């Protein structure tokens, strides 16, 4: 395994959207990711997601915050995220809430966000209010707890791991 991507015990270490997405999908995946294990580079599903991202909404520009990359932001500070998934997931809305929090911390008056699912032609609106801010802050705290743990969290039940690029690591014989 590679060296950690950052100091795991440093409370000032910035968390990106992928950290929050992995927290919701699988805490073990988050823990492994922060320690430098990155099988996503060999995943056909990840490659497919990148193609969907690159070929939809082509007139937009990514917003690179350093620790996170937002797909695009429209007038009025509405965050947009594109997903290749055919099913909306809480991890997707949590990721958008996290982006709202990051922009708000930079002084941007965020209005909310939208998750786009081009393969099923659906969108999910993500409100940004006091409750959403609290959820985003709670997710950050939970992610930091997982990251700081000395051992990996337990793996999920195998059916929940379908399509995960970490499957071989967690379930390899």
UniProtKB/TrEMBL annotation:
InterPro entries the record matches: Dna2/Cas4_DUF83 (IPR022765), PDDEXK-like_dom_sf (IPR011604)
Top-level taxon of the source organism: Bacteria
Pfam name, any one: Cas_Cas4
Residues of the DUF83 domain: 17-171
Entry-linked Gene3D superfamilies: 3.90.320.10
Protein name, as recorded: Dna2/Cas4 domain-containing protein
Species of the source: Streptomyces radicis
């Amino acid at each position: 395994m590679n060296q950690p991507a950052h100091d795991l015990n440093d409370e000032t270490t910035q968390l990106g959207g992928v950290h929050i997405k992995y927290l919701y999908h699988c805490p073990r995946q988050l823990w492994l990711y922060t320690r430098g294990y990155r099988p996503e580079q060999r995943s056909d599903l990840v490659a497919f997601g990148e193609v969907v991202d690159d070929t939809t909404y082509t007139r937009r520009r990514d917003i690179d915050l350093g620790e996170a990359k937002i797909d695009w932001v429209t007038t009025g500070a509405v965050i947009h995220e594109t997903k290749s998934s055919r099913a909306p997931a809480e991890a997707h809305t949590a990721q958008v809430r996290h982006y709202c929090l990051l922009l708000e911390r930079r002084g941007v008056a965020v209005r909310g966000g939208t998750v786009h699912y081009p393969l099923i032609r659906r969108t999910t609106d993500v409100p940004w209010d006091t409750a959403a801010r609290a959820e985003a802050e709670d997710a950050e705290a939970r992610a930091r707890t997982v990251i700081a743990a000395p051992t990996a969290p337990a793996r999920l039940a195998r059916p929940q791991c379908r399509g995960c690029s970490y499957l071989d690591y967690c379930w390899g014989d």
